[in-house]
Each structure stands twice: as structure tokens, then as C-alpha cells.
Design a protein that fits this description.
It is a single chain. 45% of the residues lie in helices and 21% in strands. The strands form three sheets. Strands 1, 2, 5, 6 and 7 form a five-stranded mixed beta sheet that branches. Helix 2 crosses helix 4. It is α/β, with parallel strands linked by helices. It has three domains: 94 residues, no CATH class; 114 residues, Nucleotidyltransferase, domain 5; 123 residues. The relative contact order is 0.10. The chain binds zinc ion. The site of zinc ion has 8 residues, from loops.
Length: 418
């Protein structure tokens, strides 16, 4: 192929391909395109001032998108210039990505591939070092996060996840209602009131005042932080977390029964935690049979399971009066049972009933918090090798925000084209 034909295809403004050669790079055959700049003057990379004369120069190679099966490198002369304002700096090369020896087009593709592939896979695919791939991905995500729109959000949700072993927690702040639909806004360390300060500062006082509802779990520091920053907002306790407390109570009952159990029944009960805690409608086939047998032999478990299944109903009301009636009736059924864990649960609900009933007036989408929580845990598990907390946080945000997660491999490729 002729050099001027490649110049056309390459579409890098201000440069001409003057030579093509095939050499070995990174154990593979590579096309080396030699570029020559067309203009005579230079440009300071800091202040973009035009500069007539170069101070010194040397050749560099920039990895670009592969050409057919060949790795591709652009060989170009990089000039050092003496800028009257900035001193000794470099001539700007706009097609090079920030912080890496790759072209912007390749960096953009790498960042997109990282949305759907592991860093390791992208590194193998593009013949790049894993650290380079990670750095490119991180920088791209940082840019998106720094410039993301935050206006118009009306409902916020705050949740927490356990990170690693021990008592380390991170908090996740999401927008549940806003112009872009549910999205994850922020991931921060810790779960105390002071830990949330960073989020509020970033989100801004004015925007916090526009929040009408906050969806949180029954964790006091979140509630206090929320009410301090959004005095107008109403608290809604997240269904996902309330149900988790209920499942914990049911599991308590299961453990108590297991301790008491002997003989055949012990065999029936062992290893049934999952089917007992799952929603009955989701338990099918053999598991369903096992569940039915189990519940038919133990009255206490039967009762506890029934109460667990029916509690869900509380979120189906649009009237606070009827929801309260339902709850009172539910508690009434506990009276003659010896289900102590359930009584404790009912007490806790009683103390937080206001925040649960607020859902009657405002049906926020509750599924997002739960699914974001699951996805976040997945990211942490998969990215554990990195030990780069900031990278992990950004990856969680990206994974849990639909518009950021969208895979657009060719989106930024022609930024520098003519
Ligand atoms: Zn300058």
C-alpha cells in the first residue's frame, strides 16, 4: 500500500505517512507507520502557544489500533520546545492518549472493552500490559465521573456493602429518581455519619435541598446524615433490608429448631436454609416437595414461614391506614406463638413504621438498591487482585449505572479525524 493511501486511512490531522515497515514488537509482527508532521511550527502542550523553533527531538512509537492481523505503531518525532511562558516543554501530540504510549483511539477502545471484558482479557487481546489497560480504564472512568450530570435528582438511596474480610464497610449512594433513571452516584468508605460528608460536599447543598425522599436501611447514621442535609426529605426504609431482617429472624427459628431436633426430623431440616428463606413461589420441583414435608412436620417453622411469606404484602398498600391495619394483624398472629426472633423483628418494625409507611405515598423503585448491592459485591469479588480501591469504586459506579455501562466500542474513534 502506498504511503499517501495510508495517510488518508489513518485520518490523523497534520501528519503524513512517509514510510511503512514490518518489524517485530511484543513477539508479534507489527506494522510501523512513520509519520511526518506537515506544519513547520510547534505548539506548547501546556499553554498551546505557537512556537517557531524546536529545542531537541527524538523518535517515539505509539501503539495504535491493529491493522488487519498486525499490531500497529505510529513512529513519530517528538519535539521539545522552549516556551516563553512555560519554559522547556513538549510539542503537543493530540492523538496520543494521556499517560500512556498509545493513541487516543486505542485508549478509547480499551476503555470500552473494559466494560464487557476483564482487564486481563483486554490486555491479552490488545497486547498491552495489564497495568496499562487498568490505567487507561481508570482514567476514562474518572473523567466520566467528574463530569457526570447531577441536576434534577429527587430521590436518593443510601446502602452499604461489606468489603473484604472483617468489619470494613463502604456506602453506596444512588439516585433512584431523576432525569437519567436509577443510577449509582457515589461509592465511599465507612458507614458513619462523618463518612458521608464527602458525598454531600460533592453533591452540593443546593441539590440536596431538592431531594424529596431518601431510601435507606434502618441504620441510624444514614438516617441522621440524611435528615441533616435534606431537612425537607422524607425517609423511606428500604424493603430489601427490612426483609433481610425478617429472614434473619426466620433463620434464628430454624437454628433453634435444629438444636432441638433429633432423629429423622434433624435429617429433614439439615441443609434446608436456602429453600426455607427463599420465596415460596421461587421454590420448585424437588425442593418444593422437601419444603412442604418440612413444614408439615414442624408447626413452629410452618408458622414462621407463613408469616415470612405474608409480610411482603405490607408494600402493596397505597393507604397508610390499611397498611397499618395489616401490620397490626400480622403482629396479632405472633401472640400465641413462641417465635421470639419474630417478636423482636416486629418491635423493630414498630419503631420504624413511619418510614415504612411512607412508601404508601411514594412508590419509589425499590429493586435498584438490591440489584446495585449484588452487582457491587460481584465487582469487588472479581477485582480483588487489584487492591486499587479507587479503581474498584469507579468500576462499581460504572457497573451500576446503565448509561455509563453502555458498550460503544467505536464511539470516540474519530475525534481527531479530518
Ligand atoms: Zn507554554
Amino acid at each position: 500500500m502506498r504511503p499517501n493511501c495510508l495517510t488518508k486511512l489513518l485520518r490523523i490531522q497534520g501528519y503524513r505517512v512517509v514510510g511503512i515497515s514490518i518489524e517485530y514488537r511484543k513477539g508479534r509482527e507489527a506494522v510501523i507507520l512513520e509519520l511526518k508532521r506537515l506544519g513547520r511550527s510547534f505548539e506548547c502542550e501546556k499553554c498551546h502557544r505557537r512556537i517557531r523553533k524546536a529545542h531537541s527531538s527524538w523518535l517515539i512509537e505509539i501503539q495504535h489500533l491493529t491493522l488487519w492481523q498486525f499490531l500497529t505503531f505510529l513512529r513519530v518525532r517528538h519535539y521539545r520546545v522552549n516556551c516563553p511562558t512555560c519554559g522547556l516543554t513538549l510539542d503537543s501530540l493530540p492523538f496520543i492518549a494521556e499517560g500512556a504510549r498509545v493513541s487516543q483511539s486505542l485508549a478509547s477502545l480499551v476503555a470500552e472493552l473494559c466494560k464487557v471484558m476483564t482487564v486481563k482479557a483486554v490486555a491479552i487481546f490488545q497486547c498491552l500490559h495489564r497495568g496499562t489497560v487498568k490505567a487507561i480504564d481508570k482514567l476514562a472512568m474518572e473523567k466520566v465521573q467528574a463530569s457526570r450530570p447531577l441536576d434534577g435528582i429527587t430521590v436518593l438511596g443510601i446502602d452499604e456493602i461489606a468489603v473484604g474480610k472483617g468489619q470494613t464497610y463502604w456506602h453506596l449512594v444512588s439516585a433512584l429518581e431523576g432525569p437519567r433513571g436509577p443510577e449509582l452516584l457515589f461509592v465511599g468508605e465507612g458507614r458513619r455519619k462523618k463518612h458521608l460528608a464527602k458525598f454531600w460536599k460533592w453533591f452540593g447543598k443546593e441539590r440536596a435541598r431538592g431531594i424529596t425522599h431518601g431510601v435507606i436501611d434502618m441504620w441510624k447514621p444514614f438516617r441522621n446524615s440524611f435528615l441533616a442535609k435534606c431537612p425537607e426529605a422524607k425517609i423511606i426504609y428500604d424493603k430489601f433490608h427490612v426483609i433481610q431482617h425478617l429472614l434473619k429472624a426466620l433463620n434464628e427459628v430454624r437454628k433453634q429448631e435444629l438444636r432441638k431436633a433429633a432423629g429423622r426430623f434433624r435429617g429433614l431440616l439439615a441443609g434446608k436454609k436456602f429453600i426455607l428463606l427463599s420465596r415460596r413461589a421461587h421454590v420448585r420441583g424437588k425442593a418444593r416437595e422437601a419444603l412442604n414435608t418440612l413444614l408439615s412436620v414442624n408447626r413452629r417453622l410452618f408458622k414462621a414461614h407463613l408469616l415470612k411469606e405474608s409480610f411482603d404484602h405490607l408494600w402493596s398498600y397505597s393507604s397508610k391506614t390499611w397498611a397499618t391495619k395489616f401490620f397490626r394483624h400480622w403482629v396479632e398472629q405472633l401472640k400465641w406463638s413462641r417465635l421470639k426472633p419474630f417478636r423482636k423483628f416486629a418491635e423493630m418494625i414498630e419503631n420504624h413504621l413511619d418510614g415504612i409507611l411512607n412508601y404508601c405515598d411514594k412508590k419509589v423503585s425499590l429493586g435498584f438498591i438490591e440489584s446495585a448491592n449484588l452487582k457491587a459485591r460481584n465487582v469487588i469479588r472479581m477485582a480483588y487482585g487489584y487492591r486499587d480501591k479507587e479503581y474498584m469504586k469507579l468500576k462499581i459506579i460504572q457497573t451500576c449505572t446503565p448509561w455509563m455501562r453502555e458498550f460503544n466500542p467505536w464511539i470516540n474513534l474519530h475525534n481527531n479525524s479530518s
